[in-house]
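Project outcomes to date are best conveyed with an example. Our students and postdoctoral researchers have been running inverse folding experiments weekly, and each run begins with a structure described purely in C-alpha cells. The record below, which covers 222 residues, was selected by the lab manager from last quarter's runs and is presented without edits.
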C-alpha cells in the first residue's frame, strides 16, 4: 500500500474519533438514557415509600384489632343476672359487663360483686354475688348479723334486715388461701355461701368482677 493511501486512512480514522468524541459530549445526545435512569430511581423511591406506608398501616390495623379483641374479650363479656339475689343493685335479667382480667392481678376484696361458677362446675349457671369475707377471715352470722374476725361488718348495699338463715355460717368459718365468702344483697332470696350448694368460693371458680350495667339504666356497678 502506498504512503498516500496510508495517510488517507489515518486521516479518516482521526476524523471518526473526533466525531465520536464530539457526539459523546454534545448536549442532548444522552438525555434519553439519563432520564431513564432518573425515572427508575424515582420509581424505586416511590415504591419503597409506598411499601413502608402500607407496612405501618397494616401494623396499626393489627394493633387496633388486638386491642379491640382484648377489650371485648376481657372487659366486655356480657352476662345476664339471673334471679333476685342482687336486687336492688341488679335486677333479674339485667345485663352486665364482666372484667375477666382483674383477678389475675389482685385478689377479690370485701364488697366486690363477683361472677363465679359454684364449685367450679362448668355446666352450672354463672352466679353473681357480693364478697363479704376474704382469705384469712373468720366469718360467722350471729343473731342475723355478719361478724368477721369478731367484728360486725356492715355492707351498705346489703338488705338491712337481719339475716334469718345463717346456714353454714351458723358456726365460724375460717377461709383458707384463695377462698371467699359471698352473699346476695337481697339475702332473703339468695342462694350463696351459706348453702352447701354454693359454699365458699375458690379463686379458681371466679369468672370475673361485675363492673358495668348496660341495662336501661346504664351505670357503673358498685
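After processing, the design step wrote out the following sequence:
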Amino acid at each position: 500500500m502506498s504512503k498516500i493511501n496510508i495517510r488517507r486512512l489515518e486521516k479518516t480514522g482521526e476524523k471518526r474519533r473526533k466525531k465520536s468524541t464530539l457526539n459523546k459530549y454534545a448536549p442532548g445526545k444522552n438525555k434519553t438514557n439519563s432520564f431513564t435512569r432518573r425515572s427508575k430511581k424515582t420509581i424505586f423511591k416511590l415504591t419503597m415509600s409506598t411499601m413502608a406506608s402500607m407496612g405501618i398501616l397494616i401494623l396499626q390495623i393489627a394493633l387496633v384489632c388486638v386491642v379491640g379483641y382484648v377489650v371485648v374479650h376481657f372487659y366486655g363479656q356480657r352476662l345476664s343476672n339471673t334471679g333476685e339475689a342482687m336486687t336492688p343493685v341488679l335486677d333479674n335479667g339485667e345485663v352486665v359487663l364482666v372484667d375477666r382480667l382483674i383477678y389475675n392481678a389482685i385478689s377479690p376484696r370485701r364488697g366486690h360483686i363477683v361472677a363465679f361458677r359454684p364449685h367450679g362446675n362448668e355446666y352450672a349457671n354463672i352466679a353473681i354475688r357480693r364478697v363479704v369475707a376474704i382469705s384469712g377471715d373468720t366469718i360467722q352470722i350471729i343473731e342475723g348479723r355478719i361478724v368477721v374476725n369478731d367484728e360486725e361488718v356492715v355492707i351498705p348495699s346489703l338488705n338491712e334486715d337481719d339475716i334469718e338463715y345463717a346456714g353454714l355460717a351458723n358456726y365460724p368459718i375460717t377461709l383458707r388461701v384463695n377462698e371467699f365468702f359471698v352473699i346476695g344483697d337481697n339475702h332473703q332470696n339468695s342462694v350463696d355461701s351459706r348453702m352447701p350448694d354454693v359454699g365458699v368460693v375458690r379463686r379458681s371458680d371466679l369468672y370475673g368482677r361485675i363492673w358495668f350495667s348496660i341495662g336501661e339504666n346504664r351505670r357503673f356497678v358498685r
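Residues 31-75 form the longest helix (45 residues). The chain has two domains: 3-72, 78-220. The training component of this project remains on track.
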